[in-house]
User: Fold this.
Amino acid sequence: MSVTVRVPAKVNVQLAVGAARPDGFHDLANVFLAVGLFDEVTVTPAAELRITCDGPDAAQVPLDGTNLAARAAVALAERYGRTPDVHIHIAKDIPVAGGMAGGSADGAGALLACDALWGTGASHVELLDICAELGSDVPFSLVGGAALGVGRGEKLTVLETGGTFHWVFAMAERGLSTPAVFREFDRLVADSDVPLPVASPELLDALAKGDPDALATTVSNDLQPAALSLFPALADTLAAGRAAGALTALVSGSGPTTAFLARDAEAAQQVARALSASGTCRAVRVTAGPVPGARVL
Assistant:
């Protein structure tokens, strides 16, 4: 018997970042939107815990105990007094080290899949607690849709959305380390009075109304200057998407994937064609959101 879970990528339509806390983390106001790029995580009983992976950039995915999918299996097994003897296979489609929570998605997917395989009967609240222990973005990967994350981003409030938002994502030639981007953020704001992060009321209203034009005027990412500092060529990708008619362009999370909001599906295809021809990115994907979080297939 095996269990497969499909889990989506995310884009941050707002990522407000506070100053570094004494524990090294940052308080966030993080507005997540789940989008239709998916990893599939399959768990099968095995003699011991092991991980395999295929798909784009699979060679960059760690196959040891540092993988969030492995950590999720271990965490659930420990909570229910069993051994995590499963083969976890990850079919990757979410960009690796791309700022779209691909690793977090795999953690949430493995957690839900192991829960179903083992029949642990963990409540949704228990699963969210384990997700929060694993990482700041993991709870949203379980929930999906749209949500506001505060604290480290793990404390979620589900948000209503009034329609579908069309996105184009441009994949960069290499990845960016999330810790490195936060360190660069800290360096860039070292002499500044960093405000407390709060969600934009105008942005939340645009989401609720399903208004892409209003959303385009309110999206923001406080990590974008740090990502551009570490990867200056991303500015060329952002400029190419804007020139092609995107309503707005931003770095997705810690990057280096760049995100472009389009007015409709036809406009998204136009932006995608222009980005593909621009020579500023490795690959381009067109999708939409919101979509549901982790689901057993």
The mean pLDDT is 96.
